[in-house]
Structure formats: C-alpha cells, structure tokens
Amino acid sequence: MSVIQGPEFYISKRMGRAIGDYDLIQDGDKIVVAVSGGKDSLSLLKILADRRSFVPVKYEIMAVHVDMGYPCHHPKILAEYFKKLGVEYHVEKIDILQGKSRKDISCFWCSWNRRKALFKAADRFNFNKVALGHHKDDIVETILMNMFFQGEISAMSPKQVLFDGKITIIRPLAYVEEDMIAKFAKTLDFPHHKCSCPNSVKSQRTKIGKMIKELEKVCPEVKTNIFRSLKRIKKDYLL
C-alpha cells in the first residue's frame, strides 16, 4: 500500500471528497487521464494512480497525451515518465493547425480539438470516463469568464455525462486550489514543463486569473465564495 503524505495527502483527501460528492468514480471504471504535461494533469495522474492502492473502489487508468504538433511537452519525455510511474499510456497525434498558422489558433480551437481526440481515444480503447486536470481555480475563472464574455451563468461541472452515457467527463481536482498543486509538483520529479502555446500569456483566462489574485488581497476567500455561489442561487432575486 502506498503511503501518501505532505501536499499529496491533502490533495488526495480533497479529491476523495469531490469523488464522493459527485459520484465521479465507480467500481470497474476505465478512466482516460488527459495529460498535457503540465503540473495539473501530471498531479492528477500521480494521485489517481496512488489512490488505487488503498481506496475500496477498483478502477483502471490510462494516461493519454494529445500531440498537437507544437506540444507543451515532448511526447517521448512524457512516455518515459509514464513508464516510471507504471501506468498504461497512449500518445494521440493530431494536426492542430490543419492549414492554419499559429497566430490563427484560439484557445477554443485548441481545446475543442484536444477534447475530440481524447474522446476518440477513450472510445477506441473502450474506456468510459475521461478525467481532466481542471482544479478549483479553473472552475472559478470559468464562472467569471462566462459571465463577463458570454453573458451567462455557468461553470465547469465536476461531472458531465456525454453521448447518452457512453463517455463521462470527470474533474477530480474540483476542490483543489492551484497553489496546493504547485507545492505538490515541486516535491516530485515531474518532466520539465515548457509551453510553446502562442496564447499562453494573453488569454482571457490569464487576465481573469490576475484579477482574482488582486481581489484576494482584500478578500482572501473570494475563490471559495465564487465557487459556492452556483450552489447558493437565490431565485427570488434573479431577473
């Protein structure tokens, strides 16, 4: 049995609570873990792999990295890490540019094509769930992005059933803040991350993230408040 401690212990504990609250993982599940190569997805993979040794629910995992032609991580480096961790893995190659130039690629385009590739891999290998590394910060940022830029109130759901139940997206890190994941990543021998995405420093999400950090200076609980707000809707005060 693996003994977990330090940052991993706290992340695993919060992950377990999210899994229980939203019924994310059931006995016999076969889970594709989407691994971009960043700290979030690598942390998700490591903790899901470690939890198998002590949780009563039995499940399979397979790490899937989508090689989009200008990866944020070299696929061979990731493959070596997957082998070291002792998990099954697959590299799905796609042409993200599809005749476009890098400056024409938006975050939506990239995300949509990556998600499509993950679904295809899950279907091909007969896996019923896809685990994404989105954490509490991502969910909070999405709530504000949808309000500010889309004029709607919505968020990333910890569990989303698709294709008439054939595939379910799960986000086990929904209760975990990014700072905690960053601390955990520093304790492990993760492959060096170097992102070459042309939109990585100028995206709407980056701007929202900076705004939240400023708000935390006057309200340290702002992320938790925003996160909880979608569960505390007062319908009598809506338009």
What does this protein look like?
The longest helix has 18 residues, at 107-124. The protein is globular and about 50 Å long. The protein has a six-stranded mixed sheet with strand order 3-2-1-4-6-5. With 239 residues, it is an alpha/beta fold. It is built from eight helices and six strands. The model has no long low-confidence stretch (mean pLDDT 89). The chain has one domain (6-237): HUPs (Rossmann fold), CATH 3.40.50.
Give the CATH architecture: 3-Layer(aba) Sandwich
Helix % is 40-55%
Spans where pLDDT lies below 50 across 5 or more residues: none
Amino- and carboxy-terminal Cα gap = 53 Å
CATH-defined fold name: Rossmann fold
Report strand %: 5-15%
What is the average of the pLDDT values? 89
Structural class: alpha/beta
Radius of gyration: 18 Å
Biggest sheet descriptor: 6 strands, mixed
Give the SSE map.
Elements: H1 6-22, E1 29-34, H2 39-51, E2 59-67, H3 75-85, E3 88-93, H4 107-124, E4 129-131, H5 136-150, E5 159-162, E6 167-170, H6 178-186, H7 204-216, H8 222-229
Parallel strand pairs: 1-2, 1-4, 2-3, 4-6
Antiparallel strand pairs: 5-6
